[in-house]
Specification:
Rossmann fold, binds D-glutamic acid, 6-stranded parallel beta sheet
Length: 273
């Protein structure tokens, strides 16, 4: 039997990556860990984020995955290097694929990146973009209210539109041509964000852009390689979901991430991580 893909996030947002995994590689087994008891990561210190990232990876290793996908942008921005150095298997983050896509899609050389406070403060996205092309202008912006809005299932409507206008007006004024949705939750606000930013701004959804990178590490390799999020067809692989807290509205909100019914939710004690 082929090994599963391990995926972790600070909570349920990483299910946007699971959604695309199931679409791109339908036969693959997936083990998901959402650290719902310790969410949010986005306002924690780098030291705490690195510590949680290490514990989450160790937990997933007990399933002997062929790789671990770090769906969380905050962890990808702050702890990926450390995880890659510590663990002897492919560890895939969302930051590099998102940067690659933004560089390929940028028309006017002005890229915006939105994410949690920790992600933006880390400067990881601008640093990677500038390393590839120092001439690009990068504008980072934290949008802390977007995560609770998504967790409440408010993907559209007046409250969400007000928050989007409040945060994104400065980026619109900077005339960015590309915007990286640098947080697991933001793809769920894609339609509302696109509506505000207008047709001249291309949105980069890292939960989709990470798929080709994952394909590189799959054994046996998928055939054909995924393009535009669609991949090989076949029987649907299993999905196991482990959470450090089974929160009251997890099932309802998570179903909107996955666009289907969820499997049984398994509880993991944080003390045992
Ligand atoms: N998963 C986090 C991220 O992608 C967002 C939620 C949090 O702050 O923990 O950065």
């Amino acid at each position: 039997m082929s090994k599963p893909i391990g995926v972790f996030d600070s909570g349920l947002g990483g299910l946007t990556v699971v959604f695309n995994l199931q679409k791109s590689f339908p036969g693959k087994e997936i083990v998901y860990f959402g650290d719902t008891a310790r969410l949010p990561y986005g306002n924690k210190s780098p030291e705490t984020i690195r510590n949680f990232a290490r514990q989450n990876t160790k937990f997933l290793l007990s399933f002997q995955p062929e790789m671990v996908v770090v769906a969380c942008h905050t962890v990808s921005a702050l702890a990926l290097k450390q995880l890659k150095a510590e663990f002897p298997l492919p560890i895939i983050g969302v930051l590099s694929p998102a940067v690659k896509a933004a560089l390929a899609k940028t028309g006017n050389g002005r890229i915006g990146i939105i994410g949690t406070i920790a992600t933006v403060k880390s400067n990881s996205y601008p640093a990677e973009i500038k390393k590839a092309n120092p001439k690009i202008r990068v504008y980072g912006l934290a949008c802390p209210l977007f995560v609770p809005l998504v967790e409440e299932g408010l993907f559209s409507g007046p409250l969400t539109e007000t928050a989007i206008a409040h945060y994104l007006k400065p980026l619109k004024e900077k005339k960015i041509g590309t915007l990286i949705l640098g947080c697991t939750h933001y793809p769920l606000l894609k339609t509302a964000i696109a509506g505000f930013m207008g047709p001249k701004v291309t949105l980069v959804d890292p939960s989709e852009e990470v798929m080709p990178e994952i394909a590189l590490y799959l054994t046996p390799p998928p055939s054909p390689l995924p393009t535009g999020g669609e991949g090989t067809r076949g029987k649907e692989g299993g999905l196991r979901i482990y959470l450090s807290d089974i929160t009251p509205n997890f099932r309802k909100v998570a179903a909107s991430f996955l666009k289907k019914r969820l499997p049984r939710l398994e509880k993991v004690n944080v003390e045992n991580l």
